[in-house]
Each structure stands twice: as structure tokens, then as C-alpha cells.
Amino acid sequence: MVALTAETRSMHLEIAGVQSQISGLDHRVTAVETQVASWTDRDQELLHLHSKLTDLEDTSCRNNIRLLGFPEGIEGADILSYLRNTLPKLTDTTFDPPLEFQRVHRQD
Hints:
Blueprint: H1 2-60, H2 79-91
């Protein structure tokens, strides 16, 4: 009986040790999960900033022209068509290939 009690006590100690190890591993896994979540957030932010940087670089490389003196609203509903038709007439030039516009807007 004494041997059985000693064996049971030994098993309890081993189980307590295993539980302690599992608890430690659980804390480590939680810390790793937190770190991975932080990296994921940073990765998303990095992708957003890269996209923003690309847009800014593209914007700075554009060949912008500014046209002044057009009365407001003269272009009607389609500013692209208006410019494609009006610029060749104003410059007395035939554009071949036709003019291409990436972005057109009014600036107040």
C-alpha cells in the first residue's frame, strides 16, 4: 500500500509538471499569436503605404498641363470630349495619334 501511495504521489507530481509545462507553452503560443497579429497589421499598413507611395510617384511623373480662360460650364457634361474637340481647333493642329488624357478635372 505504501508503494502504491508513493507511485500515486509520483504520478501526481509528474502530472503537475506536465500541466505546468502546458501552461507555459500556452503563454508562449498566446505571445506568438499576438506577435503574428501585430505583424499582420503592420503588413497591411505597409501595403497601404506602398500603394500610396506608388500613387504619389505616378502623380509626380505626369505631364500636367493647365488650361486657363475657359468659362465655367462651357465643356458641358463631358469634359473629355470637349477637350478632344477644342484643343486641335485652338492649336490648329491635327494630333496623330489622338490626344490621350489620364485624368481631367476642373480646378476652382
